[in-house]
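Can anyone check this?
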Amino acid sequence: MPAKPYDRASQDIGNILALEHINVRVPDQGMSTLFYIVGCGFTRDPYLMVGLDNMWVNIGQTQFHQPRGGPHRMRGHAEIVVPDLDALKERLAAVAPDLRGTAFSYSVEDKYVAATCPWGNRLRLFAPGPEFGDLTLGIVRVEFPVPMGHAPGIARFYQKVMKAPAAVAGSNGHSLARVQVGNHQELMFRETDGPIPMYEGYHIAIYVADFAGPHRVLVERGILSEESNPYQYRFNDIVDLETNKVLYTIEHEVRCATHPMYLRPLVNRNPAQRQPTYQRGRDAFVPGMV
């Protein structure tokens, strides 16, 4: 029989297999628990970083890592799919009194709920939908503001160095670079003519299929920042490939697919479960895989 005309390229995600976590420092685990766990409905990892020096927050197959220290305020925002926006709004309203006096806020927008953590990190929380495939819980995008004219060079960097699909679109002279970093996951770099806050040292973690290729280019260009261990390295600067000029700074923790934590199963609770209305067998939430 003749082969069916499938578009095989439509299923390619490029070299970056997944965006796994965002790392931001927090000074107070209690406040963080109120916002991320109670308000947003996420889950503290029960197996790793269970002390007071760090906490890992599970969001489907993605995470926030939150070491204790002076707070990081991330430029831009993270976009997250959650299973139920109505329940989310109720939880955020319930924690609002205990977060009074912090940077916490939330608002209901046309397609998402905007929420700001006690230290000013901004989230946009979306309901599941076709643009996210079968995902019902997870980080899907991180958007950063970048200087005017930098988006095309940033896209070329990811295409040539990290071997990730990237495209540039825009209007009114403002361009947006979109970089695929997993299945239904993107990094977005939006040009702005406004001020860009200082970078404070937070980072993102990604898994890649070709681990050695990008490493070789980063070393050649002198922008590798850390040789972490056999399974991981880091770089900070996204550069113009012609001039090596720094276009944007955000630390990348780059991991290989043989890393011991690759596809580590993450525990996610069902935030709708309550003691007064407890239903047997419904403690866990099983999201669509990122």
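Reply from J.R.: I decoded it. The chain has one domain: 12-256.
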